[in-house]
Amino acid sequence: MKGAILLAGVFSFLGMTEMPIGYYTFLRIYLTIISGVIVVNELSKENKVTGKVIMFTVIGIVFNPILPVYLHDKELWSLIDLIVGAVMLIEGLKRKNVKDVNIS
Question: What is the distance between the alpha carbons of residues 66 and 64, in angstroms, rounded to a whole number?
Fold first, then answer.
């Protein structure tokens, strides 16, 4: 999980550059999945809504590919990508290399 979260940070930083539209679709899907897994893991550990749960829920909503948020401003998206990339890298670096939760 740690590696997937760190990759999410790198992918988000890459979103700040000019990429094909397919990359941004991939980024939306990947960040939504990673955010969702983090939320599920946190809720199963804490059994309550925390600031981290809210933050990753917002990331999941902003990047969701089903009902996409269109801001029509590359500079604003670049700022969001920068913030989300930093959040993902920090979250990934804080984690140990162990399996978080067995989702069965």
Answer: 6
| Tens-digit pLDDT string for the chain (104 aa) | 888 999 999 999 999 999 999 999 999 999 999 999 999 998 988 788 888 999 999 999 999 999 888 888 889 999 999 999 999 999 999 887 655 555 54
> Does some domain include residue 59?
yes
* Structural domain of 45: 2-93
In 3D space, the residue among 20, 21, 31, 12 whose CA is nearest the CA of residue 77 turns out to be: 12
Domain count, the chain: 1
Task: Count the Cβ atoms, other than its own, within 10 Å of residue 56.
Answer: 25
In a domain, 99, yes or no: no
The pTM score is 0.84
